[in-house]
């Protein structure tokens, strides 16, 4: 993603390395700032350690797999609903926020789904609020 957005930096390894931290947020930025000084010497090395840290062999998932995700026993509603954007990032099929919410609702226990059946939720936050009220 970074390379696709970096355009003119594509052929300049030093500039790619220089501007890479500007593309990072949250956990990725924290990870990067805690790397030992002078521990990265090339773009290839930076790319490799970044992928080792953040991709850990996680592969692409299908829309069918995303739609079949279920809430785990003892999993909080927030943890369950926070998993969806992470899983969605590994699914390259376009899915609207509303469709993602419907998939997430589909993975809830039947007793909860039954109470949500006729309701419309525009985003995960709204769904989470309603599920918390029910539980």
Automatic annotation (TrEMBL):
All copies of the Retrotransposon gag domain together span 18-109
Q: Which Pfam family, any one of them, does this sequence belong to?
A: Retrotrans_gag
Protein name (Swiss-Prot/TrEMBL): Retrotransposon gag domain-containing protein
Which species is this UniProt entry from?
A: Trifolium pratense
